[in-house]
Design a protein that fits this description.
alpha/beta; eight-stranded parallel beta barrel; two-stranded antiparallel sheet; globular; 263 residues; TIM Barrel
Length: 263
Amino acid sequence: MNRFPFRLGTTSYIVPDEIIPNIRYLAGKVRDVELVLFESDEFSNLPSPADIALMADLAGDHGLTYSVHLPLDVYLGHPDRSERQRSVGKCLRIIELVRPLPKSAYVMHFEAGPGVDVNGFTPGERARFTESLGDSASMLLEGSGEPAPMFCAENLNYPFGLVSAVVEEAGFSVTLDVGHLVFYGFPVEEYLERYLPRTRVLHMHGTTGGRDHNSLAFMPPEVLDLVVRALVADGRHDRVFTLEIFSEPDLDSSVAALQRYLA
């Protein structure tokens, strides 16, 4: 696992169990575990303080870090500041919870509201969206005390250039989701050229049956080659290369697809 030109990672949902059994299963197989945390009135998977202490011990024993995916139901680009404050507050609670853990990144989505398609925004709505994101970024940095580069904005279904100025002005990093680029039809080579220098985490997954987040075996080989060549040429081996998939078979076949890149 140490012979790839990146730090191999995957999600905390590979075996059908809770977070701790997944970390135990993944220890020795990957170098980073993406924690997908959520909390609602119906269900929560937030670790207890005792779980966090155990996760820190497991990380120390096995050389692991954690990339923390901040909640999906936060809307940092919402036009209503009270909603932005609620969203930032939810992020800050997660950040405080995982503070004892060794972390590689905080991954976040830049969204305007539930079910809102940024692609349909008018120029005025786009301006309000980016202004709102800037406000949330300031609140997040002030409230968390974390270094700005630890926060990684992930590309979604709209052109990332729409929010790249916010990312740069805040000093944030990027989560380059290559699976999303392929799924939504964005030019992978252009995105690598433009955003790889700022990228801290990559999300890698394939598309089949009209759905993404499948095994890397379903990513076009030429795309996977392009990504790995770019990482090798860049010379940094500290980036997290997260297999953003959710089953043992997908993990096994994804790792098999990477075997030809072993140094």
